[in-house]
Amino acid sequence: MISRDQRTPFSEWWWTVDRVLLVALIALMLAGVILSLAASPPVATRIGLDPFHFFNRHVLFLAPSLIVLIGVSFLSPRQIRRSALIVFVLAIGLIVATLLFGPEVKGARRWITLLGINIQASEIAKPSFVILAAWLFSEAARRPEMPATSMAMMLLLSLVSLLVMEPDFGQTMLVLMVWGALFFIAGMRIVWVFGLAGAAAGGLFTAYLFVPHVAGRIKRFMNPASGDTFQVDMASEAFSNGGWLGLGPGEGIAKRSLPDSHTDFVYAVAAEEFGIVLCLALLALFAFIVLRTLSRAYRSEDLFSRFAASGLAVLFGIQAAINMAVNLQLIPAKGMTLPFISYGGSSMVSLAYGVGMMLALTRQRPKTEVNAIEAAGSYA
């Protein structure tokens, strides 16, 4: 047992971190291991790799992700702000390098290879962007004379501009929604939130008019007969085949044909093999993580911690919701991973960084420490 009287960094972390939230996150990671084993072998076999290639890499990326998650959860809010600034600058640099040197795949440049590892820099940018935006909004609330809101707008435009240049409209919409949620949480006027939503809708309409693959996805969603809807049709069939309890582990049919069964459509594989019951359990687990974080954030007296933890929870929840909605044909297809369930090294490590900061920001801190955090906020 770890005694409360011990004054070590680990004991202080153990008694202040939200252990229930930590267990929920680890449970989600374990579910990802099981579903990777179920969904990835047929994909690897089809492209001539070892059947367990993607599963082995999924487990391999899980180790550094756990280290990042636990390590980041030890940080103080001030350390989180500083690390986020460094990570965001590095991510922006990698996005620029991707635009200049990354390979073009299906008309987009989203990946760059460093030291033999494929990196999607936009995934790394998201959690650090949330932290910086939350910091600026907290400064705007604390010191109205500071042009922090304008700076937050410039931060948004800088990231969105680079994402549109890739182009990656799925990540762009996700970033806009999270920034809008933070804008609202920070107490800004609702008319500005609606204005942001209108601007986002205008941007989407512009993309529909001038970007062929965006127009194609929307047209196929509105009228399936207008193009190739093989993947989403197979995903829907998987839900029908699985029923409530599923066909059983390894008995799925859709994964034998779905090119992205281990990434974008792993939720459909879960439905077919383990049933809608498991899908509802996963949905409940995601909802619990988001609501638990929002509840803890609401009780925080430090504005930055409250905004940042809430923004990270919204980012986590919206990303999961988008992936599940695509699988259920509720929205047009997007290349969005299901957090900790889908295969993807960049996604998993960046998600671990984000939820590690969620754990750090929702730790129980004495009021004197909170006051010290607020006092230091202007200098971080």
Q: What's the number of domains?
A: 1
Give the distance, in angstroms, between the N- and C-terminal Cα atoms.
36 Å
Helix content: over 70%
Biggest pleated-sheet summary: 2 strands, antiparallel
Rg from Cα: 21 Å
What is the N-to-C order of secondary-structure elements (H for helix, E for strand)?
Answer: HHHHEEHHHHHHHHHH
State the helix count. 14
Q: Would you report the number of β strands? A: 2
Mean pLDDT metric = 86
The secondary-structure class comes to: mainly alpha
Largest sheet, order of strands side by side? 1-2
Could you please describe the fold and organization of this structure?
The protein is an all-alpha fold and 380 residues long. It has one domain (17-29, 61-377). Helix content is 71%, strand content 2%. It has helices spanning 9-16, 19-46, 53-73, 77-101, 121-142, 148-165, 169-185, 190-210, 212-222, 230-242, 266-298, 303-327, 345-361, 367-377, and strands at residues 112-114, 117-119. Strands 1-2 form a two-stranded antiparallel sheet. A hairpin with a 2-residue loop joins strand 1 (112-114) and strand 2. Helix 7 packs antiparallel against helix 8 (190-210) and helix 8 (190-210) crosses helix 9 (212-222). The protein is globular. The protein starts with 8 loop residues before the first helix and ends with a helix. The model has no long low-confidence stretch (mean pLDDT 86). Pathway: Cell wall biogenesis; peptidoglycan biosynthesis. This is Probable peptidoglycan glycosyltransferase FtsW. GO terms for molecular function: lipid-linked peptidoglycan transporter activity; peptidoglycan glycosyltransferase activity. Keywords: Cell cycle, Cell division, Cell membrane, Cell shape, Cell wall biogenesis/degradation, Glycosyltransferase, Membrane, Peptidoglycan synthesis, Transferase, Transmembrane, Transmembrane helix. One of its GO terms (cellular component) is plasma membrane.
